[in-house]
Design goal:
By secondary structure, the protein is mainly beta. It is 5% helix and 56% strand. The protein is globular.
Amino acid sequence: MNYQGDRKHISQGLLLLLFISTSVYAEPEHVQTLDALVIHATPPQAAETALPVSMLSGDELRMKASSTLGETLQNEPGISSQSFGPGVGQPVIRGQSGARVQVLQNSLSSLDVSSLSPDHANSTESLWAEKIEVLKGPATLLYSSGAIGGVVNVLDNRIPDMLPEKALQGAIEQRYNTVNEGKSTAFKLEGRANQLAWHLDGFYRDSINLRIPGYAINGQANSSQGRLQNSNTRARSGTAGFSWVGDNGFVGVSVNHLNNNYGIPPAEEAASVRIAMQQTRYEMKSAVNSPFAFAEKLRIQLGYNDYQHTELEGGAASNVYKQEGFSSRLELVQKPWAIFDHGVVGVQTRNSRFSAIGAEAIVPASDINGFSWFTMQDIHTEYMTYELGLRVEQQWISPENLPEKSHTPVSFSAAAIWNVSEEDSVTLTFTRSQRAPGVQELFSDGPHLATQSYDRGNANLIEETSHNLELGLHIDHEKVQADINLYQNWVQDYITQISSGQFFDLNNEIFITSCTLNCLPVFNTQQRDAEFQGFEAQINLRLADFKNGSLNTQGFADYVRGRFSGGGDVPRMPPLRYGMALSWRSLDWMADMRITRAEKQNHPGLNEAETAGYWLLNLAAQYQLNAGDDAEIKLFVNANNLLDQDIRHSVSYLRQFAPEPGRGVAMGVRVTF
């Protein structure tokens, strides 16, 4: 193990931040009180949380919003995008992906099949999200015991929880991206009539094949050049929601329909793979204030999802994936009791039916059911805040013609925040969490052309158990804000796909030791103890204040290293990243310049290829025009990968076949009224 190299990587990332940190206490007499961050599931009084949580909202979210959730979040601390062409971008948090990163729509499971395979797009859209919460560490127990990477909670206003300010309000947006001639049109309308609040939204987008700076297949001059073949996309969606809002709470329903058609690179042969997905999602949400003498609020959520996607090979349907699922969530926000100042207790259920039909139906049809109970409680003293969490789950997977598998993950957390001063705090958290294996990890067996692999599951898998220790520093001064987190994660029986070194001959349907033509590498699902170490650091400085605005800078870095305890590297880990940003903020203008350096990933894992380092230079600007008292117009432009670098993310299964977009400019206009 190259510990010397690891220390070098960490020092490179932190060196950029050291010169900034010396000025943290430069002007303590000027203190600005910032809005406290509130986790959606916890009571508002628990806003000063010891748990690592970040949030995108407002204009910042609008500027970063992209066609995939991973692309939207990829510049946040500790988050990468596991791209599978421009149609798929799964968030990778602290090197973890798939089932270890839970994606939620309004605190409920997305109930799609994105966690089954990296080529399956997430059905959760961020375009009209009000905010996106990213929870790491102990906070994930509010939603899942298995999300050791983190939880991404996309919160929108599909079901209004309050009456809007105006009888009619909304927004219209039009975008264009030069890198793939991508065009998107979106609208949102909201209003009220007496106690009834309503919401409508929709979007349409399409694009041609993505422009890339070089060849599609890494190092192969005979592959497509300039454009990534079979990377065009087309999607449309519509939503309607209604709520009755009273003095003591609200109750509402919504329905959403989504169609998404996207290609899976590479497409060097006639048997190109595309995915045609459609989904209809129904939700009900309700909240009651002061339902009992001992409770502040009662929340109830129900969701039903009818999901289907067809994998098209050479234009013909080959496999059909279906999932019908129902999820529910009940939360009770408590008043102070015993030694606890605040808390939340709740239950969550999931019932779904998964099936795959076709030549590559490598996972058997299965009934997947689960029940969980969770609680999180906090204690406040003058200088300290303590938080305790517990979650118990029961999962049953009943595959056709195979024995039922059941698992009972038990997870708990303990966290403390020391308020050194009104502006500064130190946090220490410990989490012990368990994750039950998924249906694909247990029962997969067959070739999967979309991922260019032959996947073998393991029916003898047991729960993986993670022990996480994290130390955090939060600084919040008028001219300096900083967040630095160091973490160590020990995972027993870590479930991962390891390249076996064998290949599957598609012509003869046999396993071979070397590949010459038309074969797939074989990946076996295994359990091995693993360790992960890493850090995230972000420091913001206000450089200068002017009459019309302020000039600010930011230094950032993140890193994670994953090793198996018996030797070897965990595959598909993100590399060390660090960089700086310069921004201007005024009443009418927002402008950002961001330069990121990603180092070479020379710990790719067994039988995996290394990825080269790269520089990424992005520019973004937004200008606001006032169009009267009731309307405003915002013009925005984002210039991405201005250095036109050949970027291949080490977390992507298709990094050798599908590079990231080349130089491109996205521009648009948004009208709100």
